[in-house]
Write a structure and sequence with these properties.
single chain, 110 residues, alpha+beta, five-stranded antiparallel β-sheet, 3 helices, 25% strand
Length: 110
């Protein structure tokens, strides 16, 4: 039997890196994600506690990364009655933000 290889018939577990947070985040046990069906504005969010990065996927405009976000903000967003209202009051214009760098762009102005 060869050393270091996977045994036949066994699949190796794969981790996916969340766009914009780096491959190290994929191995992090501090990654949290949540999908929302009750919000017309936000589809899903993911939070990397080790990097303090909150990724929000908006239904109409795509993913944005918010940096230096404390865990309490993520918890508050998940527990909020209105995700859009919480986002506007506590996240928007409060943290450094960038559009997801892994996003594919299409069209003439892409």
């Amino acid at each position: 039997m060869r050393g270091g290889g996977a045994r036949p018939g066994r699949r190796r577990a794969r981790t996916r890196a969340f766009p914009g947070t780096g491959a190290a985040a994929a191995r992090s046990t501090y990654m949290r994600a949540r999908r929302f069906t009750r919000s017309t504005m936000i589809d899903h969010v993911a939070y990397d506690e080790a990097a303090s990065v909150l990724c929000i996927s908006f239904r109409g405009t795509g993913k944005y990364l918010y940096h230096d976000v404390p865990r309490a903000i993520y918890d508050g967003l998940c527990a909020a009655e209105s995700l859009g209202a919480y986002f506007n009051a506590h996240i928007k214009d409060h943290f450094p933000c960038e559009r997801d760098p892994a996003r594919r762009r299409f069209g003439p102005d892409a």
